[in-house]
Amino acid sequence: MTRGDTSMVQYISPIYGFIPLMMIAAAFALPLFSFFIRRIKFFSVFTIAVTLIAFILSAIIFVNVYREGKPILYPFGGWPPPIGIAYEIDLFNSLFALFVAFIALLIVIYDNWYSTSDSRIHYTYYVLLLGLLAGVFGCIYTGDIFNLFVMVEVLSLSTYSLISFYRSNRYSLEAGLKYTLLGAVALSLYFVATIVYYAAYGTLNMADLAYMARNKASLTPFSSIFGNIVAATAVALVFTLWPFTFKSALFPNHFWLPDVYSSVSPVIAACFAGFTEATAIYIIARFLYTIFGLGIIPELAKLRTVVLGALLVLGILAALVGAFMMAIQRDARRLLAYSTVNHIGFIYIALSIGLFTNSIDVLRIGLMAMLLHIINHSIGKATLFLSIGSIMRGNNLDSSDLNALYGLGKTAPIAGTAIVIGALHLIGLPPFAGFFSKYYIYQVYLSVGQPIIAWLVVLVTAISLMGYAKLLLITFGTKPGYEKRFREALQSKAVLVTLMAMTIAISIALYIDFYSVLIKASESLVNYNSYIATFRDFVSSYLNLLRGS
Amino acid sequence: MALTIILNPITLMLLTSSFIAILIALITIIFKAVAKKEGSMSEDAIVMYIGGEHESILTLKFPSSDALYWAVLKRVFRNVYNYLINSLHTGNVLDWLRYMSMWYGFLMTLAIMVSILVVLYGW
Amino acid sequence: MEIATMIGYALLSLFIFPGLAALSAISLFTEWFVRKSVARMQNRMGPAYVGPIGLLQPFADFFKLLLVKRYVEQRYSSPLLAVMGVAIGIGALTVTLLLFPISPLRLIASYDVIIFIYLTILWPFLSLIIISLAWPNPFVIAGVSRAIALAIVTEPTLVASILVPMNIIARKYSQLPPYSVYYTSIAVSRLWTGININMGSYIITLILLAISIIASIIAIQSKVMLKPFDIPEAEQELIAGFATEFSGPVYAFFRLFHDMEITVLVLAIVYIFLGGPAPFNHLSVEGILTLLAKYIVVLFIVSLIRGAFGRFRIDQAINKIIKYALIPSVIALIISFVI
């Protein structure tokens, strides 16, 4: 950028900051509508419309960022970044947001059938759902760690209430209470972390933090523990990791997961598995690869190595615990919860590749495996939860007990097929896309000379077969007296068919060009230079503007 | 003589998958063409073979999903499952907190160690 | 390369050699060999009527089941699903051979061992589950549940032992595409003859290879459910396990699939650990004879184990596999990347 150039400040499109605001506005408009409109169908359609707009906007944002070739910075309220809140959108989070919008759209379309035929649902459910989505999009797009705290708070408040939405169900209340208590602790820890970051660096902007951590700079004049960014970062990183490993249900912070999954409606469970946990993983990846990633001062690099090592060990343990626990579950939704624990383990194994290498060529493949596995896991889990929801609703079951569900897949052909495809996709069988993310995990660990970790992934996959085979029995099993098929709802059929098609479509897309997009996206996560440069260019452009006036 | 092609893994996977699809189609067609079904569907033929019992016995005592992998779960991995069920996933929040605080404690120790090193030695 | 030539090669490799036709013939021969040698060990005649020394008996069995016998349907069965399941397994096993140097059309990629593992180990296993559940029956469910239980230890063992030579070669010959089935089977003979390496590392390499071969043979024994590990079909005890209700053409294809599994896994050992026709070429008489000899030797060891043992109980079987195959192969894998 040449001196005196102010173009960056003057032409900022408002769409980059629009999605979370629109969602929150829409959420709080619903109580107003409820004065005039009683039909629950209206609120559902409204939610679909808002999510659709978010999907289109996120697609536009993604295309813009892809064309631009470097991150885009959006200052909220026109305040320049280190002072005001800024969204910094690079290829990684724009792609991730696009995917989240897509899955969310599918889930709310399914919800249009599932929840509107449930007498316990009223309009506040949609307020909370929109709040959840607003929080997720805010977390993904934001470039400011305090704004991140606020958005996680928005997300969490919605999830607390959504978990305990069935107030008459004591399991719901229990799960909600447990999650709320622990979640509140986690969030306060992250709040402390932001305090420490601010005290040490004097800034809350992610790109600014990334810059200072690499230059040992600090805006605060103290030379005490707060002025020393190594000590402060160590403490703050602890308070960052623990909350987000809690939100993403990494072992040993996964205990809330089975209770929550088995007591909420399948739609909310699909939301959890589909994007809220993935968002927390994205945040950790952002912290460990962009803010405190490559090129960081050596003292912090050592700390980062230890942290990545710990995450790798926990990832392997999570995968093992999830796989073993899947085999002994009686309840399909609890089984899926442990399957999530298992897959979150895989995702963290992919994330920890930075432990073994600093080469961008390897790192980007590892992070690509992480992103692809997040995508695959969301698709697979959404498929399974929604199809099990369909079968439960169709047969008027209240519980998802495996013995009750055994053989009922035959009563609903589409949902039954979806269970099989979803399970095969999650096992990672070719040609389903689930294979490719596991393939890249194996590949990246073999290429850094760690065949044992690759082998552990195989071992865990073999153990988890026990659990997935139980799901296959839902469709392939035979229960005398249940031969009659029920009519599946259009929304359910459409969503499940789309999700099933996605499992194959991603494989084919990888062959066409999706692979290079994913690689570019993961490279943008590691490429701190352009992330920082965008921020610094913006600031100097703003200063130029001030001088000019 | 032999044709050796070096591919990237995605292409290889999709190529082999489509080959498998061709073979599946071929074998299914062969089966459809040659297989002969038992002509008369007598009452004897259409029921399951359950050691001579009538299949209504299944409604009395249905094999539960807990019975799967019984040997493995109860004998081979007994220690693993004893640990997993009796100390890890007890369902008691206080037990959970023990494990969650272990991870927290590890991170905290890390932070404190780094801080001490920095303060004492400037590292 | 012209597209027509490629399609020609693909069709040749897929359907004739080493594809469906040749693989079926070799598999049926394999079945004859196992039956005959086990029978001789047990002082029985074994197959004797069709062909010289009963060589064509499995062919006769196959075609009789396929063309003459009828299959019996049951109220809950879906024959088409069962056949699709078998076809998935047969297809996956056939296509696997394209990764090996035996095929005229050789498909190679870095890290294609993973594709090999998924095609040869995981898909046939899943197809076994699909076939069995297509003809539901309490015995079938029990058999499948036992098969899955065995698979928990069998498959990691097989993978760990296959990764040992791959890993050694990837470290020693870093100019080759790493972890590729084709290049491993080309280069593995150099490990045995020990060109260009010092004595200590040569001996360690030999020990590692020996351990991983033993582990993989045990794993194959359990994967294809031959005698000490025939718990999932458990004749008498579970009637016939997952094969309880198969009949006619479905059973014919199922048996063919099972024979193919033995064939492909033994061929994999011959190529990945023993280097195929090495030290000769594929297209020489010595090469073909060497390949055949190696194949027969490995197959004979498999039949020997099948003839020598009685059936284990499932927990015993799993413990034995862990003790004698899983742990040694994992230790070999760890050592192979330490040296």
Automatic annotation (TrEMBL), chain B:
The chain crosses the membrane at residues 6-31, 102-122. Keywords: Membrane, Transmembrane, Transmembrane helix. The keyword Transmembrane helix applies. This is Sodium:proton antiporter. The lineage of its organism: Archaea, Thermoproteota, Thermoprotei, Desulfurococcales, Desulfurococcaceae.
Automatic annotation (TrEMBL), chain C:
It is a multi-pass membrane protein. Keywords: Membrane, Transmembrane, Transmembrane helix. The chain crosses the membrane at residues 7-29, 49-68, 80-102, 114-135, 147-170, 199-220, 262-280, 292-309, 321-338. It comes from the Archaea. Its main location: membrane. One of its GO terms (cellular component) is plasma membrane. It is found in: Membrane. PANTHER family: FORMATE HYDROGENLYASE SUBUNIT 4 (PTHR43359), FORMATE HYDROGENLYASE SUBUNIT 4-RELATED (PTHR43359:SF1). This is NADH-quinone oxidoreductase subunit H. It comes from Ignisphaera aggregans.
